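Case study 2.
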Amino acid sequence: MRAMPESIRRAIQAFQKLPGVGQKSAERLVYALLKRRREDALNLSRSIADMMDRVRYCSGCRNYSESEQCPVCADAARKADLLCVVEQPEDVLAIERTGEFRGRYFVLHGSIAPLDGIGPEELGVDQLLEKVQTGGVAEIIIATNPNVSGEATAIYIARKLAGTGVQVSRIALGIPAGGSIGYADEVTMLRALEGRTRINLE
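Prediction:
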């Protein structure tokens, strides 16, 4: 592409690394930035750099946070005995939008996918089990996505929790099979939480 400056080509390649952004979409984004005021583009660049410098995992739930604990874990009014296990931070947002869940979370940052090299160790399952073993957790709601890897993850965690005395439940199928929790609307998410069923491994 001789008509394209090298710096633009590199920017397009950088945008293409984002999920769901193909070459055409990346080109549109880059050219849209170039058409805006220079300060707007620089503000975007600075905000991304600032985010990458400041955001880390919450020590309690592994959600994104700018401090040792995220706002949910730091909230004494939340039910510490009720824990919702989700795949991604955006799943927390979907559940929080219902305004009904008052427990806390544990974020896996993925699901078991052996072909992609993702096992329980990468998902922090040991940290989850340690949290249960230290006491105070009465119920765990497994809210992984209703697809093959999400179901495999839910079953694996439920089996690991067998014998701990903790009630383990699974969100109801208000979320369509093969869907993503992070994209669920508030009503669907609320129905899934309210209709959760206990996982029985006997």
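The first strand starts at residue 56 and ends at 57.
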